[in-house]
Amino acid sequence: MNLYEFSAVEAGKGLLVKMKLLLVVCLAVAASCAVAPRRPNAVVDFVPGNDNVSGRLQLYRTDYAGVLIQGKVSGLTPGHHGFHVHAEGDLSGKCTAAGGHFNPFQTNHGSPYDNPVRDRHVGDLGNIQADRYGNADIYIHDTVISLDPASHAYIGNKAIVIHQGRDDLGRGGNPDSLKTGNAGGRAGCGLIVPH
Ligand SMILES: [Cu+2]
Ligand SMILES: [Zn+2]
To answer: Are residues 55 and 123 in the same domain?
Structure first.
């Protein structure tokens, strides 16, 4: 083997080592992305109110304002159900101890898309929809509620209540519509437990 041939073989070996190293790094990055889901910043486990509701939600702080709510609930009647953050973190009395809608700015009841300092309670998250088996997949990104303890809209240690009826989002044309959305009794509720 002359000098030229020798250096070509060594260069080839070096390249192979570099390629193997690159492959290992790529696989490690891909694996970490694939198997490491983000840990939720809060969770909610539902207990029955007037209906036999169960299920779990994961809540995530988003990069900008707001919270992403994700999870599954079962034991509902088919159709729409009012879905709100209520002011008290107490689930007793079939969820009645959770109090009224979380309303730090003393506004009327409304829809999640109404102005939060004028036309919506902070806790107004609209409706969820259960299928014919009473199961609901929940995926809500709301930009008003917060998991930042310094925020006036902080929802930690409060309750989420799911109602037996549909929230009319403040459009019902009667006084109760601007207070509760006429969403009816409390099907189930859960405490928002920060992690
Ligand atoms: Cu409610
Ligand atoms: Zn409300």
So the answer is: yes
Query: Looking at 51, 80, 81, 84, which residue is catalytic?
Result: 84
Q: Into how many domains does the chain fold?
A: 2
84 catalytic per annotation: yes
* 139-159 residue pLDDT tens: 999 999 999 999 999 999 999
Cα of 142 vs centre of ligand 2, distance in Å, is 14
β-bridge mates for residue 138, sequence order? 71
29, 123: one domain: no
Both 47 and 25 in one domain: the answer is: no
Residue 18 belongs to domain spanning: 1-36
Q: Provide long-range contacts, Cβ within 8 A and 24+ apart, for 174-177.
A: 177/109
With a threshold of 0.85, does the pTM exceed it? no
Catalytic, 195? Answer no
